[in-house]
Specification:
Elements lengths: L1 E6 L2 E3 L5 E9 L4 E9 L6 E7 L4 E3 L7 E5 L5 E6 L8 E9 L5 E2 L3 E5 L2
Parallel strand pairs: 2-11
Antiparallel strand pairs: 1-3, 3-8, 4-5, 4-9, 5-6, 7-8, 9-10, 9-11
């Protein structure tokens, strides 16, 4: 069984910042990549950013230059630093982990709301 602890979501004004954290634990080993998806009401889930165990990062075009993904010292942690937030960034953000020898696992999601 795999557990995720996600934190850092909340309400922020446009132009503000948030830092999301995600830690996976339990029966999950040799994580090849981790990342974040988001899903806004009435929309499909979309990839925000991902990072491999080697540190190669990939971003959705709309968040490049505003968001930074990083891995923690422990291979099972990932962070998403979000700057210059816009109302369009409002969504539930889901962390995921890709074990090298198993299927993708998902966190439960954390709400990010950008509003005045």
């Amino acid at each position: 069984q795999v557990q995720f602890v996600e934190s850092g979501g909340g309400l922020v004004q446009p132009g503000g910042s948030l830092r999301l954290s995600c830690a996976a634990s339990g029966s999950i080993f040799s994580i090849a990549a981790m990342g974040w998806y988001r899903q806004a009401p009435g929309k499909q889930r979309e990839l925000v950013a991902s990072i491999t165990s080697g540190g190669w990062a990939n971003y959705q075009d709309s968040v490049k230059d505003r968001f930074t993904i990083s891995r923690g010292n422990a291979e099972n942690t990932v962070y998403l630093q979000m700057e210059s937030l816009k109302p369009g960034d409002t969504a539930v953000y889901f962390c995921y982990a890709d074990p090298s020898t198993s299927y993708r696992r998902w966190g439960q999601g954390t709400q990010v709301t950008v509003s005045t």
